[in-house]
Amino acid sequence: MKRTFLILSVLVFSFSLFAQFGPQGPQSRVETKTIQSRVLNADREYNIFLPKSYETEPNKKYPILYLLHGMMDTHLGWFMRGHLKDVADQLIASGEMCEMIIVTPNAGGNIYEGAWNGYFDMPGWKYETFFYTEFLPFIEQTYRISGDKQHRAVAGLSMGGGGATAYGQRHSDLFIAVYAMSALMDIPDQGGPPPSPNEDDKMAILTRSVQEHSCIKYVTEANDARKAQLRSVHWFVDCGDDDFLLDRNIECTQAMRAAQIPCEFRVRDGAHTWEYWHSALYTCLPFITRCFFNK
Questions:
Q1: Domain boundaries, the chain
Q2: CB-based burial of residue 142 (10 Å sphere; 0-12 exposed, 13-18 middle, 19+ buried)?
Q3: Which CATH architecture has domain 23-293?
Q4: Distance of alpha carbon 73 from the chain centroid
Q5: CA-CA distances (angstroms) from residue 165 to 19, 62, 120, 237?
Q6: Residue 197 to residues 15, 157, 205: CA-CA distances in angstroms?
Q7: Alpha-carbon dihedral sign for residues 129, 131, 135, 141
Q8: Which helix (H) or strand (E) holds 292?
Q9: Closest C-alpha to 215, from 169, 265, 179
Q10: pTM of the model
Q11: What's the burial of 202, exposed, middle or buried (CB within 10 Å: 0-12/13-18/19+)?
Q12: d(Cα 80, Cα 278) in Å, to the nearest integer?
């Protein structure tokens, strides 16, 4: 009788482990969660990638990558179209990437249907204030994050690439690395949409915010103290040779070079597409890993 009970207990325990971890043991997972923002007076969703050891090593803390989406996209884009989980699982398994937590906040939606877009503070949309006073503290208190500059990075594509660059520039004390893909570094006055007479035109507001937070001017106008701060961050700019933002990315890296701020720059075959950004992850995630562990 005791032996039968023991066998049944082992079977139940084994089934429980199988149900929790699957046939191949613990697996990484992606969760969609919501944070209530007083700053934005709205709920904002986010997706978060948790590596497979997150459940099995409850005392372990992890570095974090904040990965930003592009205009009119949301927190779902990197997982649904960029296949982030698949890439991260593959690179972790091969040893090219360390286990890290990756979070994709939601700063967008369909702007032509009235959704706000952008990573900066704008009239009616103080997203940068939300990010630094509510979102980042919430994430790093809720999950087991290392919580220091050496183990925190930011990256993004298009609007998110410009946002990541600007965040790294203006908050160099918080991020060890920035990886910008096809980044919206600036919008020239002659290259943006015509001024809108409607003060509630979200595209016009977004355009002005990008110009006011020009990543290029931030470098060209930098004094010695600012340049020293920028040198404390590892920079990587990645843009396709057929991308309509290539000139802005070249101008930004030229400004960095003139200011003697080290910055890796890659121009690969491709355009402003998800095929390009998906492939960029295979460079981005190992780069971020090296920055986490190379002081």
A1: 23-293
A2: exposed
A3: 3-Layer(aba) Sandwich (3.40)
A4: 13
A5: 42, 23, 12, 9
A6: 64, 30, 11
A7: negative
A8: helix 274-293
A9: 169
A10: 0.90
A11: buried
A12: 11
Give the angle 59-173-60 at the CA atoms, nearest 5°: 5
pLDDT < 50: residue spans in the chain: 1-2, 4-21, 191-192, 197
What strand order describes the sheet that includes 64-68? Answer: 29-37, 42-50, 101-105, 64-68, 152-157, 177-181, 234-240, 263-268
With tokens 């969660």, the residue in question is 33
Question: Tokens 């003139």 correspond to what residue?
Answer: 258
Is residue 142 within 8 Å of 61, Cβ to Cβ? Answer: no
Q: CA 29 to CA 118: how far, in whole Å?
A: 27
What DSSP string runs through 200-268? Answer: T-HHHHHHHHHHHT-HHHHHHT--HHHHHHHTTSEEEEEEETT-TTHHHHHHHHHHHHHTT--EEEEEE
Compute the half-sphere exposure of residue 27: CA atoms within 13 Å on the CB side of its CA: 13
Parallel, antiparallel, or unpaired: how do β-strands 42-50 and 29-37 relate? Answer: antiparallel
The distance of Cα 221 from the centroid of its chain, to the nearest Å, equals 26
**Triad 228, 231, 235: Cα angle to 5°:** 155
| CB-based contacts of 140, cutoff 8 Å, min separation 6 | 64, 147
Given this model, what pLDDT does residue 188 score?
87
Residue type, 239: C
Residue partners of 10: CB distance under 8 A and separation at least 6: none
The token pair at 143 is 């999950």
For residue 133, the 8-state DSSP code is I
The overall longest dimension of the chain from CA atoms, in Å, is 85
As a whole number of angstroms, the distance between CA 96 and CA 94 comes to 6
